[in-house]
Task: structure prediction
Amino acid sequence: MGKRQMNDRSTPAAIPAPVEPRRVARRALFGISISDGQRVLLLSILAFLFMAAANLAVLYAIERSRLDEERSAARYAALDAAADIQMQITQSLSTLHLLSALVRESSGLAPNFERVAGQMLPSFPAVSALQLAPGGVIQRVVPMIGHERAVGHDLLRDPSRENEAHKAVRTRQMTLAGPFTLIQGGTGMVGRMPIFLRDEFGDDFFWGFATALLRVEDLMRAAGIEQLPDSGYDYRLTRPMPGNGEEQVIAASIGTRILGGEVQHVFVPNGEWTLTVGRRGGWGSPLLIVFEVAVSVFVAGLVAGLTYLLLSQPLVLRREVRLRTTELEFQASHDTLTGLANRTLLCDRAEQAIRHAKRTRSGVALLLVDLDRFKTINDSLGHSIGDDLLVTVSRRLGATLRESDTLSRLGGDEFVIVMPDVRHESDVAAVCEKLIQCLGQPTKVRGAVVYTGGSIGVAMYPRDGEDAETLLRNADAAMYTAKESGRGRFHFYESALNDRMMRRLSIEAGLREALEREELEVHYQPKVSTRTGRIEGAEALLRWRSADMGYISPAEFVPMAEETGLIVEIGEWVLGQACRQLRAWHDAGYAEMTVAVNLSALQFRQRDLARRVEKAIGEAGVPASSVELELTETMVMENAAEAIELLDALRALGVSLSLDDFGTGQSNLSYLKRFPIDSLKIDKSFIDDAPRQGDDAAISRAVVALARSLNLRVVAEGVETPAHWNFVCDIGCDEAQGFLFSKAITGDTLGLLLAEQQARPEAVWANL
Result:
């Protein structure tokens, strides 16, 4: 009874009051019960902190990447500029080697100095004048106008220059003095080559100097360093002053020192210059960083606010989908490597230009640009360097065009340009000239200097087609015509080019089967000794007689073999055939015979070339000393350091090395003495008019004198008349070849000539 009463009294206090779920809805977060509103606020704060931290991390990464990119761009700009200055100085001073040879060959008279110097100056834009100073006193200057005050100046007695001059005489080495104020006005540098002759007793005596005047502004302009400020860079080119070592400014875009700049060195014959390149305004931007931090905080706050208001919406997913959609749209219309328009976008832009041209009664030009030696560079230096080269070329092309033009990449090394609103064909030709000049400039990629060049085909709307595909097909045909014309050129489409394109396709298809069908042959052109008048060697030359197309000129199929890469297999076959034919001549009793085989650029870049040559010689069983390999100037000069290493490996086998078509390329004569070359071949173009004692005769004599000073043999090509023969004998060539003696003939036919020669002890060609 009492117990029941106690429970009755406690009942009202034991039962809690009813609770409204909507009013006091509770949630647990990190073990703490909070309301829905508090949870949203807390998540918004966490979102703000997370976004702020993420934005600052991204900002740091972007700023660091931007600074690295600025540094890298400045480093490459400094590297390119220093290389350009180095190349201009080296090429400019190479003129002194030829002048020295000209003086020595004429025993100090140099009668053709003014003419030869006048011909050389246009090819060396950094050289403003060439001078001869017998006894150290300047007497002859080309050009004379503007340099009259230099005549009579004694270099050995000038207080400001006598140390450099006496040093050149004492060391017998070329020197580069300056910069300093020139006697004839302005600032420049003088390269001096001391020349020594021999008297009647065989003793050397100092004849005087050959000098080249390089004005600072001309050198900087030729090297393109003046373009650095246009790209947003400041530069300072300095050198240590001789004697006190103080810094002397040679050229600069800024009057003060460049802090934290990228430094490259330029090596001159008797010193070292320093090129410093820095970004204008310094590295990075503090104001930009402050602005970006403020924006990051603002964005974080904005995201936090949106999170508070729209917590349930997947904003990140939406943003990612939108970004991916934009990327896919860009990838669908642009080249992934260069970022240029691809074929799809190109055709769309071309069709828009055509529709606009129809309304305005104007024209459209479609230019197809193909790099000339890209496959060789890609195969020899690697695809990564090839990709970097394509990116560099695309930037150069884009900088040359108008904003309204469209630049695209079709693939490989082919670029297409659409030029709308064309009024005159001459305007297109002018653009092509600029593009050819742009592509012809040397390009430095990862430390390697490469020379590409390009060929351009042009098709015009409405003359050559009324739609993009037709214009593109016709521009392609015109481009191949430009390549066949010698490369480095442009050509407008003509209706007859379609037939030539079909022939090209037929030749390319037939060439791939020519070796298997035994349609290729090796013929041999005799080489005659000027001393004995007898045949002592032969040059192996490739010929193709197709079963379907008949005889095809090497000028037509050899460039195609180089483009397709077939020249490597064909060249190795030619070398084997030539060695086997040489063995047959030796077995027949003509042991003095030698054979010369031309190497292509692709063969020369093979890492195992020496092993392949050794294998061909060993299988044929001929002495290596009877085999001569002929190379061109371009092959050995494109990458001189690697070329020297490969030439040394070939020389170690015992074969002879010859530099073909000497004088027609871009040789640096100072490099010539470093190459292990045995002989030079004077190009046919110098021999044609040489008997008339013109400029070609003077140059040929100078080449022979240069070869003699380097202990090299000289072979003259293109000897077609008795006058040619008498001339090459007179100037001291060792061997000659040409149609005067024989065209290229089979090995058996040449064997008959050798048998006839052996039966006649007298010199066959001596009395021409």
Remarks:
- The chain has 25 helices and 27 strands.
- Residues 1-32, 312-316 have pLDDT under 50 and may be disordered.
